[in-house]
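Class prep. Write one:
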Amino acid sequence: MIYRFRIILDTEEDVFRDIEIEQDATLEQFHNVITQSFGFDGTEMASFYISDDQWSQGEEISLFDMSDGNQPVRLMNETTLIDVAHEASPKLIYIYDFLSMWTFLVELAEIAEHENGREYPNVMYIHGQIPDQAPDKEFKADESDDFNEDENKDFMDLDEYEDLGFDENWN
C-alpha cells in the first residue's frame, strides 16, 4: 500500500508538501524525502514524534542514538511508517535541526493502492516557499502547584553566586 502524507511547516504562511511513499519505507527514508522536498541538505539532527489528535508530542523516534545506553531509543532506520502511522493514529510531528527547530505537522491523508509505473517516494504537490529562518517557538511549561517559593528557600540566591569561587576552581 501507498501512504499519502501532507507535511505542513508550522508557520503563519501556508507551506506544505504532499508526499506519497510505500508503507514499509523506514522513517529515515521518509526523513530524506521531507528534507529534500523542503530544500534542506539533510545533515542536521532530526526526530519524529508520535502524536495524538491534539498534536501532543509523544514518543520520540530519532535519526541517531544520542542516549547514554540506559534507555532504549527508537531509531528511524529501524522503524517503518506502518509501525507508527495508520488510520487510528495518523499524526506525527517532525522536527529538523534542533538549533533552528523547524517543526512540521505530518498527517496521513490517504492510503492508496500501488500504481504500476510510478516511482515511490513521490512528491505529489508543493505549496509555498520555506522562509529564510525557522519560525520562533515559544515553549511553556505546564502550570504546576508543585513549586512554592516559600517552601523552596534552599535554592541558591543569585546574589551569592560570586561566593562560589568559580574562577579559582575552574580546570
Remarks:
- The first helix runs from residue 27 to 38.
